[in-house]
């Protein structure tokens, strides 16, 4: 796995020589799986003392064990408990790292609650985190570069890789076909575009629900149906949320679902599907966990609703979670490494707080990838 991350391997060789993080601690809260192992070991090669914890319900024990064996301090264990996750994040911050590699804004939000001297800045990986941190710019007052807002991350990972891994996860977890399935995708950002395209390419009938009228028009012109919300929910065999927002599908939608509807979330936080609210609704007669990663709710009127991976990010939860492709994550993590390097070297300042990756870094990473692919 690590040997296939060619960009990170090349950056790691440079970091061995240049040591841009010498004397610095980098605190990270990120999905811990084999590809993120490659990133964290690359940062360590740059002289960093890395201390890392995972995200809710996506941490893989094998990744923790490998990191620990290779000198990276790890905190916590795989968990789907938000209280445990909070404790792990605070333990990372207790080490008072100078740089933060954040995923969903978890670390920066907690640093604002209990700030310490010496934080230089860092990075944020996701759309969800950017949405969370943007209103806090003035309070943070440090350089924070948003990897997700790089055009490379948008097309290479979000559109192509998330679309591919979401389709793969649906097939692997359910063993259902996509042919002729009626699929409703909530959100037509880069991830939603990729998901819709991949399911259409797999011979599904795809509809898009999007609140932004201009983006909804784009979905229509891309050849997708754009029905009203209630109609889209009522016709769907499979409903996929990819918005970064909370409460996209709730118990109030239960009367609309057809028998056998499958619900799955691709957004970073397990909040887009209100699983707890849905399961607690009076119309739900019982729940069966018939297969790993699938919870089936039996409604009092006889209908069944299937929820995948408890509403957690479907491509990094459930049985044998693989996440996005190695090549796409190599690109995204090369951006991470270069952005953290820029913050450490002071080539970005506090005016660049919760902003996209600098264009010069995008260009350098793109050129390096093309050269390696030639």
Q: How much strand content do the residues show?
A: 15-25%
Give the termini distance in whole angstroms: 21 Å
Helix content: 40-55%
Task: Please give the CATH class of the largest domain.
Answer: Alpha Beta
Instruction: Write the H/E string, N to C.
Output: HEHEHEHEHEHHEHEHEHHEEHEEEHEH
Name the average pLDDT.
Answer: 95
Name given to the CATH homologous superfamily of the largest domain: Adenosylhomocysteinase-like
From the coordinates shown, what is the CATH architecture of the largest domain? 3-Layer(aba) Sandwich
Number of helices: 14
Q: How many domain regions? A: 2
The class by helix and strand makeup works out as alpha/beta
Inertia-based shape: globular
Write down the CATH topology of the largest domain.
Rossmann fold
Let me know the number of strands: 14
Give a short account of the largest sheet: 7 strands, parallel
Rg (C-alpha, Å): 21 Å
Spatial order of strands in the largest sheet: 3-2-1-4-5-6-14
Give unreliable regions as ranges: none
Brief write-up:
The mean pLDDT is 95.
Question: Notable features of this structure?
Answer:
7-stranded parallel β-sheet, alpha/beta, Rossmann fold, 374 residues, 7-stranded mixed β-sheet, globular, 14 helices
Please outline the helices and strands.
Elements: H1 6-18, E1 25-29, H2 34-45, E2 49-53, H3 61-69, E3 73-74, H4 82-94, E4 99-102, H5 106-113, E5 121-124, H6 127-133, H7 137-140, E6 144-146, H8 151-174, E7 182-186, H9 190-201, E8 205-209, H10 213-221, H11 229-235, E9 238-241, E10 261-265, H12 275-280, E11 284-291, E12 294-299, E13 304-308, H13 326-345, E14 353-356, H14 359-373
Parallel strand pairs: 1-2, 1-4, 2-3, 4-5, 5-6, 6-14, 7-8, 7-9, 9-10, 10-13
Antiparallel strand pairs: 11-12, 12-13
Helix pairs in contact: 1-2, 1-13, 2-3, 2-13, 4-5, 8-9, 8-13, 13-14
């Amino acid at each position: 796995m690590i040997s296939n991350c060619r960009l990170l391997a090349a950056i790691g060789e440079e970091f061995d020589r240049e040591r841009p993080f010498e004397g610095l601690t980098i605190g990270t809260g990120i999905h811990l799986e084999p590809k993120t192992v490659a990133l964290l070991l690359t940062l360590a090669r740059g002289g960093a003392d890395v201390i890392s914890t995972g995200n809710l319900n996506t941490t893989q024990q094998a990744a923790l064990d490998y990191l620990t064996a290779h000198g990276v301090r790890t905190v916590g264990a795989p968990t789907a408990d938000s209280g445990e996750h909070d404790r792990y994040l605070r333990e990372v911050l207790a080490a008072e790292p100078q740089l933060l590699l954040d995923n969903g804004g978890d670390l920066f939000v907690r640093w604002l609650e209990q700030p310490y001297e010496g934080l230089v800045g860092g990075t944020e990986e996701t759309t969800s985190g950017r949405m969370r941190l943007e209103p806090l710019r003035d309070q943070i007052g440090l350089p924070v570069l948003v990897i997700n807002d790089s055009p490379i991350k948008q097309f290479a990972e979000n559109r192509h890789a998330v679309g591919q891994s979401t389709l793969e996860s649906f097939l692997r977890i359910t063993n259902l076909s996509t042919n002729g399935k009626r699929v409703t995708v909530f959100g037509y950002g880069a991830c939603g575009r990729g998901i819709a395209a991949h399911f259409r390419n797999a011979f599904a009938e795809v509809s898009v629900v999007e609140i932004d009228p201009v983006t909804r028009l784009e979905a229509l012109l891309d050849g997708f149906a754009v029905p009203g919300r209630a109609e889209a929910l009522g016709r769907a065999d499979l409903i996929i949320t990819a918005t970064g927002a909370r409460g996209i599908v709730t118990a109030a939608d239960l009367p609309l679902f057809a028998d056998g509807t499958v619900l799955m979330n691709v957004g970073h936080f397990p909040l887009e599907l209100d699983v707890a609210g849905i399961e607690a609704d009076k119309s739900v007669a019982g729940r069966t966990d018939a297969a790993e990663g699938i919870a089936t709710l039996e409604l009092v009127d006889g209908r069944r609703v299937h929820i995948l991976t408890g509403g957690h990010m479907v491509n990094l939860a459930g049985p044998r979670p693989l996440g996005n492709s190695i090549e796409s994550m190599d690109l995204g993590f090369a951006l991470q490494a270069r952005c953290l390097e820029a913050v450490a070297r002071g080539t970005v300042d506090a005016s660049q707080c919760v902003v996209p990756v600098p264009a010069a870094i995008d260009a350098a990473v793109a050129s390096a990838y093309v050269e390696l692919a030639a």
